[in-house]
Amino acid sequence: MNNNNDKEKETHAAVNPGDVIADEQETVEEKSKQVAVDSPDITGDHIKVPTYFVVEEPPDGEEKALHHVKDAEEISDVIRQARVDEEGNRTWR
């Protein structure tokens, strides 16, 4: 048997397929098109979660893809920063 296929099946049994990070290198654009979850939830609402969240890195604005599981803390930091005005006050929208 092929160990890679067995390992992949084992991994996918434990997590959503969209949670798995590809072994091969991918561009930010390729990552931005991936979807981790695309299905109805228990209430019937349709949920779509991107695998990667693309953010701009200061100071040059270079794009960076953050994985929704592996980089969850950094994604939270980006969201918190987006909610702070120029004077450092939290803003709620």
Question: Describe it for me?
Answer:
The chain is an alpha+beta fold and 93 residues long. The protein has one domain (3-82). The chain contains three helices and four strands; from the N terminus they run H-H-E-E-E-E-H. The strands form two sheets. The protein has a two-stranded antiparallel ribbon with strand order 1-2.
Strands, helices and their partners?
Blueprint: H1 3-14, H2 28-32, E1 35-40, E2 46-50, E3 52-57, E4 62-67, H3 72-82
Antiparallel strand pairs: 1-2, 3-4
Strand line-up in the sheet with most strands: 1-2
Give the radius of gyration: 17 Å
Give the fraction of residues assigned to helices. Answer: 25-40%
The total domain count is: 1
Share of residues in strands: 15-25%
- Outline type: flat
Structural class: alpha+beta
State mean pLDDT (0 to 100 scale).
82
β-strand number: 4
The biggest beta sheet reads: 2 strands, antiparallel
N-end to C-end Cα span: 54 Å
Task: Note the total helix count.
Answer: 3
* N-to-C order of helices and strands: HHEEEEH
Q: Which stretches are poorly predicted, pLDDT < 50 over at least 5 residues?
A: none
Which keywords apply here?
93 residues, 3 helices, alpha+beta, two-stranded antiparallel sheet, flat
Q: What is this entry, summarized?
A:
The chain has 93 residues and is an alpha+beta fold.
